[in-house]
Amino acid sequence: MILGGDGYCGWATALHLSNRGYEVAIVDNMCRRTFDDQLGFNSLTPIKGIHERVRVWEEVSGKRIQLYVGDICDYEFLSAAFQAFEPTACVHFGEQRSAPYSMMDRSRAVFTQTNNVMGTINVCYAIKEFAPECHLIKLGTMGEYGTPNIDIEEGYITIEHNGRTDTLPYPKQGNSFYHLSKCHDSANMLMCTKTWKMRTTDLNQGVVYGVATPETMMDDRLVNRLDYDAVFGTALNRFAIQAAVGHPMTVYGKGGQTRGFLNITDTCKCIQIACDNPAPPGEMKIYNQFTEQFSVNELAALITEAGQKLGLDPQVINVPNPRTEMEEHYYNAKHSKLQDLGLEPNLMKESILESLLTTVVKYKDNVDQRLILPGVNWTESASVGKTIAKV
Amino acid sequence: MILGGDGYCGWATALHLSNRGYEVAIVDNMCRRTFDDQLGFNSLTPIKGIHERVRVWEEVSGKRIQLYVGDICDYEFLSAAFQAFEPTACVHFGEQRSAPYSMMDRSRAVFTQTNNVMGTINVCYAIKEFAPECHLIKLGTMGEYGTPNIDIEEGYITIEHNGRTDTLPYPKQGNSFYHLSKCHDSANMLMCTKTWKMRTTDLNQGVVYGVATPETMMDDRLVNRLDYDAVFGTALNRFAIQAAVGHPMTVYGKGGQTRGFLNITDTCKCIQIACDNPAPPGEMKIYNQFTEQFSVNELAALITEAGQKLGLDPQVINVPNPRTEMEEHYYNAKHSKLQDLGLEPNLMKESILESLLTTVVKYKDNVDQRLILPGVNWTESASVGKTIAKV
Ligand SMILES: NC(=O)c1ccc[n+]([C@@H]2O[C@H](COP(=O)([O-])OP(=O)(O)OC[C@H]3O[C@@H](n4cnc5c(N)ncnc54)[C@H](O)[C@@H]3O)[C@@H](O)[C@H]2O)c1
Ligand SMILES: NC(=O)c1ccc[n+]([C@@H]2O[C@H](COP(=O)([O-])OP(=O)(O)OC[C@H]3O[C@@H](n4cnc5c(N)ncnc54)[C@H](O)[C@@H]3O)[C@@H](O)[C@H]2O)c1
Question: Residue limits of the NAD-dependent epimerase/dehydratase domain (chains A, B) (predicted)?
Fold first, then answer.
């Protein structure tokens, strides 16, 4: 069961697992599409509606994906979906996942934390009640850790203090209401796991890039979403699109911000590995799910090089940082556990960037340049709901 | 401005500050009284309605306390209260504060985290928007730390790891949806403090005991609430009441659970100290607010001794632990910062326990013995709303 299966990671994962013989159901309330409608955004790629997507997938692959359309915060709906599908694993992508969206105004801050935290509490209760053996695989983010001045471990850290030792949850420092919602989820899940003897895996995912996966390439109508606006677009994908349309790549501040990255095809592989290695009852496994780390400046340089090979002329501008974050900092995050379980990463090679750029160039006429510049400033988040839709 | 000023800590603190010349407003939506009504509970002491309490206080002391009745999750109401009162400090007690209540069922788990976390986000936005210099003093709990096998520091811990060092938020391990809501609050507040340059103090309070303060003793109608039911009653207060009515003291499990405690008069003094020492903009001060630590068995022994002096015959029974928690563990929590700022603690001496027992004996005919035994089991928390009211 894939919560949030109409989204960027969820859609790719649903097809990946379905293609490999897993019986898949998608649960989604389409709120992500509503955010785009409300703010005047769009996916660069022309994505189809979920009903058509699922129909096309059956036509192309002969495999059926079940569809449950509804809100996981609606417990009546969620219970019915659990009782009907009887999942053995539940992959939870179904959250509001944009940091800028969560910092836009008070009502979106409250929406983000309510939607994400209460949704996850509901999922825990549904598993406890209807599928106690079901393995919950929950997407967190590397952003939960912030940028501490020590190495980032995978979820837990052993601390020696005043002559005594304990292994404790790694201290978290989320930097937006979105990132904090993930910290809250992790803490809630850990308590539920221990108290109710649940099986849970928390995946602190890095920034995902890329758009094509072997399954989405099987038919144009299966194409995945690709966001380039300043609210939902993420670092590398946005740079590729900016390069393709001749907009300078917008580096926030000094560009020394370093983060972990992974290709969308690796997201799918990691989820499969997590599904195949369920946590034992009462234990929450935590993995850092990314394959390489880069600074923003390094990303811009990589895109510049790959773009030039394709005859593009990528430029960089440093725009004032709308976020409150460190622009130069130590960053060393561990990420060996998934590789120990067999992950063979698809690293950020030139060929990968070139194929991303090629896809992007194909759809570049869809780009609305007004959506590219940052529209949400962390310090200006106000109580009065505003729309940043640019008309 | 005292959020939750009709509650146990809030009422005592409002009178304490008002009596010392601070201009005080109480904000409360009376939801605590509603919980009692719904579950068939009552305060041992016959508390008056908030309107009468405030009237009596003016009659007795000549001092006026303003009253804003409403829900802090209702931002329109909260904004109006902030604009009318223009607080320079905001003491935030206004949360659902019972761990068993939060573990009763899914809807109360979700209510607890929504009420507490979204209420606090609203308070942060109201301060940012209407009173940016206002010092937020937020009540957390020592329970946020759980029972780690290392010393508990005051909010932050310096970690040396792989040859590097950083001072990070102390790792939290809340053990109920209530305790976790406080962890979430602290994490959210830290981000708001840094991003919006707020002044905040987070007080991780221990278990409060006692009922009388100099102000509530000025008139019977000012009496504070005292909870003895298994949902809202806290350790020492419950034991005193059990001893007074001849019910054996209900020690959960082995009784080795150790926690920090403080007298209700010290709660008032700590809040005053926090008010008088506002945090600088952009920094969140964190204090552990308790004065002594005891195990549950030690508390039972103290009450036994004090009770015998008063001619009572206190007994102990070990009941199965309804919570999922360690019953024997290391516990050493620091609590020097408030004393460094001038707190002179009112320690748990025999005289204090005797006066608590005397008050309790005075009202003992109000006790409904059916409410004493634990009614909420951590592992049985179900999705279906239930009422544990015993008729
Ligand atoms: N994309 C990244 O770079 C990235 C990085 C780290 C972590 N993650 C995490 O991975 C997950 C998926 O990210 P994504 O990029 O695919 O996001 P997305 O917005 O494309 O997909 C999320 C999906 O969840 C659905 N959803 C949200 N709330 C729901 C609710 N209450 N009920 C039902 N459906 C709901 C949305 O409609 C959407 O289809 C998120 O939890 C995100 O935080 C993503
Ligand atoms: N009593 C203790 O031993 C203890 C120990 C540690 C921490 N604390 C913390 O101290 C604070 C006060 O505790 P207490 O024992 O006085 O609790 P209480 O329940 O007696 O008082 C809380 C008050 O807040 C009000 N309230 C709750 N939600 C509200 C909302 N959304 N809008 C407006 N008012 C709201 C309630 O009506 C109630 O009057 C709580 O935050 C609690 O977590 C208490």
Answer: 2-288
Domain ranges of chain A: 2-370
Cα dihedral: A289, A291, A295, A301 (round 10): -140
Pick from A177-181, A373-377, B184-188, B264-268: least confident:
A373-377
Strand partners, B232: none
- pLDDT above 70 (res B97): yes
Q: What architecture does CATH give domain A2-370?
A: 3-Layer(aba) Sandwich (3.40)
Q: Is A230 left (phi over 0), alpha (psi -120 to 50) or beta?
A: alpha
3-state secondary structure of B89: strand
Q: Are B195 and A324 in contact (CB under 8 A)?
A: yes
Atom 9 of ligand 1, residue of closest alpha carbon: A139
| Helix, strand, coil abundance in chain A, percent, nearest 5 | 45, 20, 40
Rounded CA gap, B282 and B117, in Å?
20
Structure tokens at B159: 């970690």
- Half-sphere exposure (Cβ direction) of A384: Cα atoms closer than 13 Å: 3
Distance of CA A364 to the CA centre of its chain: 23
Note the pLDDT tens digit of each residue in A226-275: 999 999 999 899 999 999 999 999 999 999 999 999 999 999 999 999 99
CB contact under 8 A, B113 and A126: no
Determine how β-strand A292-295 pairs with β-strand A316-319.
Answer: unpaired
Tell me which chain B residues have a C-beta less than 8 angstroms from the C-beta of A161. Answer: 150-151, 157, 159
Q: Which two tokens stand for residue A364?
A: 């570049």
The answer to whether A179 and B194 are in contact (CB under 8 A) is: no
Categorize the per-residue pLDDT at B391 as very low, low, confident or very high, splitting at 50, 70 and 90.
low
Distance CA B41, CA A216 (A): 59
Total Cβ atoms within 10 A of residue A259: 21
Phi, psi of A26 (to 5 degrees): -105, 130
Q: A177-196 and B177-196 helices cross at what angle (nearest 10)?
A: 160
- Residue A19 near residue A43, CB atoms below 8 Å: no
> B22-44, pLDDT tens digit by residue?
999 999 999 999 999 999 999 99
β-strand pairing of A2-3 with B164-169? unpaired
Strands A316-319 and B24-28: unpaired
Helices (H) and strands (E) in chain B, counts: 13, 14
Residues of chain A below pLDDT 70: 384-391
